[in-house]
Amino acid sequence: MKLSALTPVAALLLSLTAQGAATLYQHAHVATGRGAVLNDASVLIVDGRVRAIGASLEAPAGTTIVNATGRWITPALFGGIGSMGVVEVSAEGTTNDSSLSLGEVRPEFDPALAFNPDSEPVEVARVEGVGFALLAPEPGSHTHGGNVIAGLADVVTLDGRGPHAPTALVVEMGHQGGALAGDNRAGAFLLLGDALEEARHPPKPGEPRRLTEAGRSTLREVLAGRTPVLFQVDRAADIRAVLSFAAQQRVKAIIAGGAEAWRVAADLAKAQVPVVIDPFDDLPADFDRIASTLENAARLEHAGVTVAFSLRTSAPHEARKLRQGAGNAVAHGMSWERAFAAITSVPAHLFAAGDDLGSLDVGHKANLVVWSGDPLEVTSLVQNEWLDGTPRSLDTRQTALRARYLERLTRGQAR
Amino acid sequence: MVVFRGLRARPAALLLGLACAALAQATPSDPYPSTYQAATVAPVLIQGATVLTGTGERLDNTDILLKDGVIAAIGPHLTAPDGAQIVDARGRTVTPGIIDIHSHLGVYPSPAVSSLQDGNEMTAPVTANVWAEHSIWPVDPGFQTALEGGVTSLEILPGSANLIGGRGVVVKNVSAVTYQAMKFPGAPQGLKMACGENPKRVYGSHNQAPSTRMGNVAGYRAQWIEAKSYLQDQKDYEAKIRAGGKAAEDAKPPKQDLRLDTLAGALKGEIPVQMHCYRADEMATMIDMSKEFGFHIAAFHHAAEAYKIANRLAENGICAAMWADWWGFKMESFDGIQENIAMVDATPNGCAIVHSDSEEGIQRLNQEAAKAMARGNAAGLPITPEHAIRWITLNPARALGIGERTGSIEIGKMADVVIWNRDPFSVYALTEAVYVDGALQFDRAHPAAAPRSDFLLGQPALRGDAP
Question: Which helix (H) or strand (E) holds B143?
């Protein structure tokens, strides 16, 4: 049974064939991740799936009914592009699998095997309403054998299941790409172009080669348009160069970084290339980002560019802060709906996270969060969370530390 | 990218006037004096605002008169003096100017190019002789964005690569060609020290001391011993001068030592000690060390584990300057929790400060405080906005030694004031007007046509759409 998520359904009668547990949240603000917020709406979850969303829903017998007046119900959020599940303590090398430094070109590198669902940053992000993220390798540094072609990125879910199949190829451009390409940003195009050429025309036995057959195979998926390329690039001119390179090579591009994307918004809109930006960017942090502005998101929205958000840092510890960034984008002119979509449905779509993630739709597995208020507001907190159809504990090592020392504090013994 | 937060080592991250015996007994003179001049402006009458005073009070429908650089009157229905500018602030919230106790603006500026990385003198573990002010690039565009976030005063510190990193400086957040023209008149400098991972990593990786935490502590202690001896030599010399006669004639002043001048200043209580320290056990060690040598720690900065020893900090009159939610970037921040600020605050006589250590965070300390407030409330520690505003106003002002002059909306204090378009503890709140000493430094409705930073002035990239 599939019902429209956006049409309020009055007094809906449900034919329940399954006998599982049912939960009905009533009188909530419901943000589906697509389109407007439904006020005074209800969400019915049966057997771990969203069975109905509407103004007034009738619950089957035995349903747990929750009065969610003043609460917000949303899809679980996107945690950004970074090292979710592969970094425990950033500065400790033994816990940090964020980059691959082989000194080789290995586009086929898939970081999924490094993913640790028991990682504390995963748990901490999860209890803050984050349900999925894009695990993307860092390019590494020149001195440590890093490469412009960093490898594949995977959607990871924070429900214990771990990574999906690879969904994009990560390529570093701009000055950081240049540092890995003979100290010249144009060199990054050269290296990537060479690699794509080798994939198109595999070397004959005895001919020199840079790639493995697996690497060529990965790049053929890129050339076939099945794997998009996530270009990490900020400067307006560099973005334009990427657009033209992508058109010439016929690869599907997604821009990540995009600090100056607003300056080439018309080109991006015309080429239908989406942009993943950090909504906090507003300083000329380097010479690639001179025109950084908090209005980047609003201007891109206005120009019709598809916008998703990610913090610039790859640290998974900060994934929970992304919603604050979306709130700041709203404060600086973006519509609430598009800002919220930029941390839910848009990244889910861009990275092919699957139907169940990024939006709240009838029939989907419950991947949803009940908030104390507007989820973009810094004072709003998670009250309940469902991932992969199951209600989740909100306990972490951090809440255990809090409990231990709060108890000592109240006894006057914290010393 | 592995981010070593708190160190800011990006790739490359009192003198008693002894030269003149007459000065020996008292006031330290500043050879790099403040040239800051508050702008002369007409009085401003802010009308009908909700005022969070910074002293814990909330005043509704209240007027504030800014006159001659100070807060001249507070109350309902004040009379505007002749020539006063009237600002209708009904529906708005007014707070004291925001104060960041921990910033590296100007010393790690934007753009973060290698030639402007001037925040850590990473050539020796003790560089008490260096002054952060001598590294400040006043052009840093981060000053403007911080101003737009309501920041009127900030302390710019050396980084944390060293055990003793040098002197910090308090500045007013005004546009200037020189740092002296920003320097907060009469504010004490600060002494930056660092516990834990950073010094031992930086020097240990060069096979140099310190390479361990015990090496760190031995390193500080050796310095304090020298500083005490230096101070004693000065006292002996002063005593001889005072005695007069032959003793005075023969007396030789101790040779000036910039490093020991700084440490002696801390021992005399003239330079507040601002100590980067994350772990509870290390903070406890530092407290013992401060007692061993007789100096006072004004605040532990970062203090990720302050919640574990909140009572001890309060008993010793030490503030903790913290982030709302940073954690896990290195081992000593692994136990950081979001209730840290609220738990320090909830301790009797506790002093909680929200700091940034970030060019991004300094722009929205109101949001950082809001997050900490919400966490406290959820943990059963009730915190009101009028209380939480202290974390980013009066508490840092006190820890910086400027609490008698700014940090709250009280009559006679500097007219450092922010008008917010709504509750500042909302993510959607923006500053509408920021006053420093009564002068309007930022006006969102009438932004300056040109950027303040010379670096941004005339930049082709800022002209709009790419050609």
Answer: helix B142-148
